[in-house]
Fold this sequence. Notes:
Elements: E1 7-12, E2 29-31, E3 33-43, E4 46-52, H1 63-74, E5 85-91, H2 97-100, H3 102-110, E6 118-124, H4 132-136, H5 139-147, E7 152-156, H6 162-178, H7 186-288, H8 292-322, H9 325-359
Parallel strand pairs: 1-4, 1-5, 5-6, 6-7
Antiparallel strand pairs: 2-3, 3-4
Helix pairs in contact: 7-8, 7-9, 8-9
Amino acid sequence: MKNPSERTLVFICDPGAILWAALKGGEEKPLGTTRLWGTTGTISGRSLSVVNMPGAVTTTQSQGALQDWAMECLSLSECSKGVHSFLLVAPLGHLTEQERRGAQCIRRMFGEKAHGFTQVLFTYEPEQKDSLEDLLKEREAQRLVEECGGRFHVCPKSIGEELEVTGLLGKVDSILDQGTDRCYTVEMHQEAQLLLVEFREQLKGQLDGFARLKKRINERERMQVNVENLEHRIFREKLARLQDELLLKQMEKERDRGMEVEALSFIYELERLVDKLALKRVRAVEEDHKSREDVQRLREELGRMVDEMVTNQKHRQMCQEKGEEEWELQNLRELLKRLKNNMKKQRREGTGTRRKEISL
Length: 360
């Protein structure tokens, strides 16, 4: 097991964001690649390893690339026995958008268990020392502290005194004493990766299930739309047929009404002609002094005409019931023709009678 006095700290910040003037050992240098910087030294008799991951909060790399970067960090000899604290370095007074998302960046790289070892390290310039309390009350600083579980520490950008380093290590020790794990190990990272893979598979299964469900819902909606369209089409066809039937019945009623009016007009004309004929016959009788036999014959003829009209009227009613109005009109026309011929015949007979009387 690693010596309890030894500490390994991983800083998430740009190169030069914090200077280790008080650390006895050596200056910061690349560790294997330019993506990792660090230094190792002693402070108050304690061994301290510092690893910096510059650009971690500003990178646009994929999730897989970030995890590879984290594994590269944990594979260093300085971190092989575990990381005691992840420190998100943020200068007071002017936090960038990337620094405000730093806690999320650590989670993405190292997993949820790394959150318990994470704290904010606020740095300040010498001229800001008198306003630290106000700077810490700023909303952006408070929000960043909340995202890191309320854990933070404040120190100058250039750590030149041994007391400043021991204060930071004391804060790290306090956090470790409150937790169950003494450090963040490679095994935790591998476990986090397995959980992430499992979560992705579960998420993929849920997304696939949602996709299938959405497909079934879309198919059902399309079927419902097709059924509704079919019902609407059937309804429109029925409505069109009803409209056609109503229009046909209306046309038949109009036609029947027109034939009835024509028949009534014809009967009225016939009655007018009969009245005119009767009047002329009466006048002819009066003028020619016809005998009572002629008058009786005229009356009988008129009686026959009236009877025939009554008979035709009854037949007309029967024709209306059977829809044979045209036949009735034809009979009426023939009756009118016979009446006209009778009138001509009577006129000729009347003229002959007057000539005989004149000759006598």
